[in-house]
Amino acid sequence: MSKPPTLELPEGARARQLRTPRGEFAVHEAGEPTRGTVLLVPGFTGSKEDFITLLTPVAQAGYRVVAVDGRGQYESAGPLEGSGYAQPELAADVSAQCAALGGGVHLLGHSLGGLICRAAVLAEPKAFRSFTAMSSGPASVGAQQQERLKLLLGALPVMEMAAIWQAMRDLDPPEAADAQTPQAVGDFLRRRWLATSPHQLIAGAEQLLAEPDRVDQLAALDIPCHVLSGERDYAWPVELMDDMAHRLGAQRSLIPGAEHSPAVENPEATAQALLAFWQQH
């Protein structure tokens, strides 16, 4: 789970609703599309706030940057039944968001968001200018994370969300723990969890457990790809992401000092790597 260092939007950024034929989505937006538009899609248990550190540097480089809450995530409404969160539905949302932003966006998906974005690219490859998988692997997550997700799937139908939140904190891997988390951020993380649809969480966990390897399908498309991750990752082994980049013929960025959330753990290096890729395409 990404922990944004602050919840305050930087100067020039704004919160708004992005209207699409598939509904409205809460977004944070900054900048003008002088060089293009960037769409940032968060991962499992995440939200648009996970990208707050990228808004200023990307906007200052001449891009309109838009971070979104997907359906059922935090401040975006979602359906009250599980089928509405199937991967094709989530991928169609991403395509609709892209179209609402004028099309041809640079697309980035973090973690589960990377799998959803990959599905969107495979469905409509000409709709996107480039694709970046941030801390997102070729298929299902690693064994340690699978066990945690299975526990969550067992709890969601029978436990209150507040009780699950506490249980999840107890199960966090050591590298995810941070006793220095500011109180406001800690309160936000809990508030975000409670506002997220349980159906969205169930569907997301199931996708992370069952995602097939679709790297060869993506490699067959004519779209620039970028694989970016930290030096360590508790969801997918870094070696798997190295191999995925090789199979894709993709640009590979390894962010020093970062783990599963590079945009939070080393935002400066993450922004530099992203801009270097986007500026080539």
UniProtKB/TrEMBL annotation:
- Where does the AB hydrolase-1 domain lie? 37-267
Taxonomically, what lineage is the organism?
Bacteria, Bacillati, Actinomycetota, Actinomycetes, Kitasatosporales
Protein name according to UniProt: Alpha/beta hydrolase
- Please provide the record's keywords in A-Z order: Hydrolase
UniProt-listed Pfam families: Abhydrolase_1
Q: What InterPro entries has UniProt attached to this entry?
A: AB_hydrolase_1, AB_hydrolase_fold, Carboxylesterase_BioH
- Tell me which Gene3D superfamilies the record gives: alpha/beta hydrolase
Q: Which PANTHER family match?
A: HYDROLASE ALPHA/BETA FOLD FAMILY, PEROXISOMAL MEMBRANE PROTEIN LPX1
Q: What would you give as a GO molecular function for this chain, any one?
A: hydrolase activity
